[in-house]
Amino acid sequence: MAVVTGGGTGIGRATARALAADGMRVLVVGRTPDTLAGTAAGHGDVRTLVADLTDDGVPERITAAALEAFGRLDVLVHNAAAVLPEPVGAVTREHARTQVETNLLAPVMLTRAALPALAAARGTVVAVGTAAVQGRRAFAGLSLYGATKTALDFLVRTWAVELAPLGVRAVGVAPGETDTCIGERMGWSPADIARHQAEAAARTPSGRVGRPEDVAWWITRLTRPEAVYASGTVVAVDGGASVA
Ligand SMILES: NC(=O)c1ccc[n+]([C@@H]2O[C@H](COP(=O)([O-])OP(=O)(O)OC[C@H]3O[C@@H](n4cnc5c(N)ncnc54)[C@H](OP(=O)(O)O)[C@@H]3O)[C@@H](O)[C@H]2O)c1
Q1: Residue 166 above 90 pLDDT?
Q2: Is 84's C-beta closer than 6 angstroms to any atom of ligand 1?
Q3: From the CA of 175, how far away is ligand 1's center (Å)?
């Protein structure tokens, strides 16, 4: 059974539904009751938990809720993220802290809290990074966000080794430009988003930006028992953009 953070929207919503379609019961976590309810609507195997991942005690609450609902925890998807664009000359401590706490510390503390349950199920941890930081690339204007995602890839590698004796795998999925409300959250106008996506599609070998379902498919497959020999790896799901 699975927990998906940030499961009310975008890639998280598609992942929760794909996992449910694959036979998993899923707990989606986020701060907004309405969007979480939207994910669960019509999907009887999806439960919701309203929580801010950066609050004290939340990792333990999520783990307890999953165990209470399902009795076990097979899959933990760290998908929630904060993206606050700022060039380094304009970085604020508040935005820096939000990104580090949401994108980096929250997955660490939730993994720690969930570890006994994951070990009991010989489960899988999935971290959603970004293809924008694959290879030796800069991420101008998004250095702190990119740094948290780079660190997440490192955690995947390290956890794959640390957790192997417990029978727990760690994998990463790194989406390329994907059509979600992330641009809106970054404060972009509809015109900015359309221009940005058109530019991304033009530099992507597949010729389009991703859909949340493109990413969800890979997350679901990587958590299946047949994927047992994959650990410590980060799969870019970006239409080839990171190698073009
Ligand atoms: N879309 C892209 O082009 C793209 C590209 C590369 C990587 N990604 C990655 O894909 C993942 C999903 O992003 P998305 O594109 O689907 O964007 P999104 O729709 O904005 O999803 C982010 C989710 O995180 C949740 N969240 C944020 N802060 C939280 C907190 N403190 N506590 C609990 N939940 C929190 C949000 O829900 P609430 O606000 O309701 O809490 C939201 O559901 C992210 O890790 C992102 O970095 C996206």
Answers
A1: yes
A2: no
A3: 12
Tens-place pLDDT, residues 39-87: 999 998 999 999 999 999 999 999 999 999 999 999 999 999 999 999 9
Q: Beta-carbon neighbour count of residue 23 at 10 Å?
A: 9
Return mean pLDDT, the chain: 97
Of 178, 177, 170, the residue nearest 154 (C-alpha)? 170
Strand order in the sheet with 26-30: 46-50, 26-30, 2-5, 75-78, 124-128, 169-175, 234-237
Write the CB contacts of 33 (distance below 8 Å, at least 6 apart in sequence): 48, 50
What pLDDT was estimated at residue 50? 98
pTM of the shown model: 0.98
Q: Active site includes 145?
A: yes
- Domains plus CATH for the chain? 2-180+211-237 (3.40.50.720)
Tell whether ligand 1 has an atom less than 6 A from the beta carbon of residue 9: yes
Check 30, 62, 129, 145 and give the catalytic one: 145
CA–centroid distance, 81 to ligand 1, in Å, is 4
Cα 80 to ligand 1 centroid, rounded to whole Å? 4
Q: Does ligand 1 lie within 6 Å of residue 151's CB atom?
A: no
The per-residue pLDDT for range 29-40, each reduced to its tens digit, is 999 999 999 999
CB–CB of 28/223 below 8 Å?
no
